[in-house]
Amino acid sequence: MKSGKKTFNEIAAKFKRGVISVWETADKVAREKAVNALEAELGELENIFGILVQGAFIGIPSPPMQISLDLLPLMEKELTIMIEKIETANEPISHLFSVFDIS
Question: Is residue 10 part of a domain?
Fold first, then answer.
């Protein structure tokens, strides 16, 4: 066998490494997109929780006021999310486009 030519096993091994590399890259991208979607969903659920607990302030039925006021110091993150939602309330479709990376 000549030293300049590659054997079938060498070519197959190189091809296999290439396919594995592409597969691992695709897996990383899919996982990152899944994590981003879950983080967006968590933000929405926290916003809904905040609205349900503090709903009396905007006129929707909510738990008794004492429970809402007791939870208020613990809801800093949810209140921050609610304020962010208010800022983007006039453009909800653009928020969805940015979450799901639609281009």
Answer: no
- Give backbone dihedrals phi and psi of 5, rounded to 5 degrees, phi first: -95, 145
Number of domains in the chain: 1
Instruction: Give the residue numbers spanning the domain of 47.
Output: 29-87
Residue 17 tokens read as 């490494």
Structural contact between residues 74 and 15, judged by C-beta atoms closer than 8 angstroms: no
- 55-103 pLDDT, tens digit per residue, is 777 777 777 878 878 888 888 888 887 787 777 767 767 767 777 766 6
Cα separation, 78 vs 55, in Å, equals 13
**Do residues 47 and 85 make contact, with C-beta atoms less than 8 angstroms apart?**
yes
Instruction: Give the side-chain half-sphere CA count within 13 A for 88.
Output: 15
Question: Which amino acid is residue 58, in one-letter code?
Answer: I
From CA 39, how far away is CA 32, in angstroms rounded?
A: 11
